[in-house]
Specification:
The protein has helices at residues 10-36, 40-46, 68-99, 101-120, 132-161, 167-192, 198-204, 207-219, 225-230, 234-245, 251-271, 283-301, 304-309, 311-317, 322-347, 349-373, 381-400, 402-413, 419-445, 452-474, 487-490, 506-521, 523-530. The two termini are 22 Å apart. The protein has 23 helices and no strands. Helix content is 74%, strand content 0%. It is mainly α.
Length: 531
């Protein structure tokens, strides 16, 4: 009582800013690779037909579409990056808990740099001019390992070093940086597409932020105080906390109080058992696991990566300018994620996800209907523009909800003794969803010899209604304003319930979340919650 909250000082801001560069390199890959494989220079190098053959329309009923043999290989190139991340995530979580967040981030940067340069030099290095496909696959696998380490560790690192009242905004900066990278690539690709080796320049660009993060993490940034406390190095933990509390009122007392909270949580958790993977499936960690993994995975089940990776193709399907539309689409996502920084800690994670999901469901349903009833968009320009507007609305809704909250929630919900492992599992399932719903799924099934564009849109609509919406309603409790040490109470659970200690069953957990969703879905009641 009477101890003020920790403020955001220059040192903490530096930690957040440099860590956000981890999101930038993820965004640069997301924005560059899907566009690079569509460029004429890449297709000539690898031996694929042009994505836009001269004399053939790019939209309408007679539009040219790549055959499934090409879209399948495109999917594999994108898939290998996320496969590497899927493999790297649990390894990164283990390394993060054993050797620290800082060392894991540094190794992640080195792997990412190696992978980016390998891709950029595909078919021109090691004396093999015909090995473009092989080099792309292997380079993306190595870079993906680095991404798995990065996504497992950076959100947790930022969350652990941020003031509790700003934790959501701080982790949201990671997603903002992802979108800045995507938008930067969208603009860069307009220039790169005019050059035969433009695809190489776009892929090499990914190494720049990774080098910046590696330099800063090696020279300036501290280890997490929670990691030091877990190892019993209270003096070093206190030193970092004093740096983070500098400039705040009663800084010494504030740092001591925060260290006491960390140690108290550690003592309680370690008394309950070992720090093994099995801890994730026991007690409150199980509900945290369902929430953290469910939210992180569902972020990509919205099919967002399909829109990011293949936005030029999607805009072309609407008979509109592909590159200009792509820049606008990614720009909306970026602006929405920036706005989320200022509202996520006011309105809360669950409210943002609920309302964002309502808008996403509406966007998919309307566009699926219009694709079905309007056979030729080339002859119906107003309808095409209306559909584009709803894709923009979808991107804005995602940027305000699933984009940032998909990383904020898993970074804060896991108990400290399994936080690295929990985030690793969440990242693994996030990458698995990205493979299924971004790399392979919609792009492959939209080929004319599979489901076609109309069938792909109806499939995505079914997914958001029957998976994304239920997850937002039943899996996530509100965590706004809770410290990391208080999070266990929001996820209190045991198999048969424990009324004496106010611990409920799993069904009680879902019912409580459902009641919260109902309250937040009523504007008047939601307003009372936000005040």
């Amino acid at each position: 009582e009477g101890i003020p909250k920790r403020n955001l000082n220059a040192f903490t801001a530096l930690v957040i800013a440099v860590s956000a560069f981890g999101g930038l390199l993820f965004g640069l890959d997301s924005g560059s690779t899907g566009a690079a494989v569509e460029m004429d220079g890449f297709r000539t190098q690898i031996g694929w037909p042009s994505a836009h053959p001269n004399g053939l329309p790019t939209c309408g009923s007679d539009a040219h579409h790549d055959p499934s043999s090409v879209t399948g290989k495109e999917g594999i190139i994108l898939f290998m990056f996320h496969l590497g991340a899927l493999v790297g995530a649990p390894i990164g979580g283990e390394l993060s808990d054993r050797f620290g967040r800082r060392a894991t981030i540094f190794v992640a940067c080195l792997l990412f740099i190696l992978g980016a340069l390998w891709q950029a030099l595909s078919g021109s290095a090691l004396g093999c001019g015909t090995c473009t496909y092989r080099d792309m696959v292997l380079g993306r696998l190595v870079g993906g390992l680095g991404l798995g380490f990065m996504l497992t560790t950076v959100p947790v690192y930022v969350s652990e070093l941020s003031p509790p009242q700003l934790r959501g905004a701080a982790v949201t900066c990671f997603q903002v940086a992802v979108n800045i990278g995507i938008q930067a690539c969208a603009g860069f690709n307009v220039w790169a597409a005019r050059h035969f080796n433009g695809w190489r320049y776009a892929l090499a660009l990914q190494a720049v932020p990774a080098a910046i993060v590696a330099a800063c993490i090696g020279l300036f940034l501290p280890e997490s105080p929670r990691y030091f406390a877990k190892r019993g190095e209270d003096g070093r933990a206190m030193g970092v906390l004093l740096q983070l509390c500098a400039g705040s009122e009663k800084a010494q007392e504030l740092a001591s109080c925060e260290l006491d909270d960390i140690k108290a949580e550690l003592a309680e958790l370690e008394a309950a058992g070992s720090l093994s993977w099995r801890e994730l499936f026991r007690g409150s960690a199980l509900t945290s696991l369902l929430c953290g993994v469910g939210i992180c995975m569902t972020q990509n089940i919205t099919c967002i990566n399909y829109f990011i990776n293949f936005s030029p193709v999607i805009i072309s399907n609407l008979c509109l300018s592909p590159w200009v539309g792509s820049i606008g689409l990614n720009g909306v996502n970026l602006l929405a994620s920036i706005a989320c920084v200022f509202v996520v800690d006011r309105f809360g994670r669950k409210a943002m996800l609920m309302w964002g999901t309502y808008v996403i469901c509406t966007a998919f349903l309307l566009n699926s209907i219009l694709f079905t009833v309007v056979p030729d968009l080339l002859e119906n320009r107003p309808v095409a523009l209306f559909m584009l507007a709803w894709i923009f609305i979808f991107m804005a809704a995602f940027g305000l909800s699933w984009g940032p909250c998909g990383w904020v929630v898993p970074s804060e919900v896991f108990p400290l003794n399994v936080r690295g492992k929990g985030m690793a599992l969440a990242t693994t399932f996030n990458m698995l969803a990205s493979i299924l719903f971004g790399d392979f799924g919609p792009n492959f099934v939209s080929s004319p010899d599979v489901l076609g564009v109309i069938g792909a849109w109806w499939l995505m609509t079914a997914i958001v209604f029957f998976w994304v919406l239920p997850v937002a309603i039943f899996v996530l409790p509100e965590t706004r304003g809770l410290t990391l040490e208080q999070m266990n109470s929001a996820f209190a659970y045991c198999y048969a319930g424990d009324a004496e200690n106010n611990v409920g069953t799993m069904s009680a957990f879902f019912r409580r979340n459902g009641r919260q969703a109902w309250t937040l879905s009523c504007p008047r009641r939601a307003h009372d919650c936000w005040r």
